[in-house]
Amino acid sequence: MPLSLTVLGTASPYPQPGRPASGYLLRGGGAEVWVDAGFGTFAELQRHTDPTRLTAIWISHLHADHSADLAAAMYGFAYGGLTLPAPLPVYAPAGCARRLAGFFGRPDTEFLSGVFDFRTLYDGHSARHWNLTLTAHAVVHDVEAYGLRAECQGRVFAYSGDSGPCDALPRLAGGADLFLCEADVDTHRDGEPRVHLTPEDAGAYAKGASRLLVTHVGPTLTPLAATARAAVAFGGPTECALEGDTKIV
């Protein structure tokens, strides 16, 4: 199975008609991984695979536009007749299970264990599923957050998650065959924390990668305009992430 990425959603910070929040299906080496579970992405996931076939879920950070549809998946697996062969590994920052349990009004997390096997991410965390290796890189955001580098049979996919400018991003993107990068904000305002990237930031950080895929464009920009700006800064093949598209890495 070649390494591929299917776009489930790209919107920030809330879903829009036909445009769910952040979510992707990464497939390769026999594994199928749901990367980020933003609002609306569980429904889109079902267009492209049977959720019971998932190998793992990987969550970059706990903002709702990247993680809220874990609740939808819990309903599907626990109460909706979607039967998993075993608890599904969920790689996420600390506290993810507690936050999901709170949605169900439960103070404990034990009831989740029959569906999800939560595994805490940290900088350098690595997991292998079949011939797909997932490695987390800590990035700068206003909460604990990670970018992802996935390797499969000589191909490399990198994902910024949500991040402000930081030294981790060029290391994440370096040598990647495809770099999926957010371009959430139009510009950075003086004095405000830099917790997201501009299109120009995305293009500059992608320079070590072969191709750039621009995603998670915020409401002050249009995806196509952000992609055009990122392409100028990158100087290489640049595309706009569109819901339903599949890219071979």
UniProtKB/TrEMBL annotation:
It comes from the Bacteria. GO terms for molecular function: 3'-tRNA processing endoribonuclease activity. Transmembrane segments: none annotated. Residues 33-216 form the Metallo-beta-lactamase domain. InterPro entries: Metallo-B-lactamas, RibonucZ/Hydroxyglut_hydro. This is MBL fold metallo-hydrolase. It comes from Streptomyces capitiformicae.
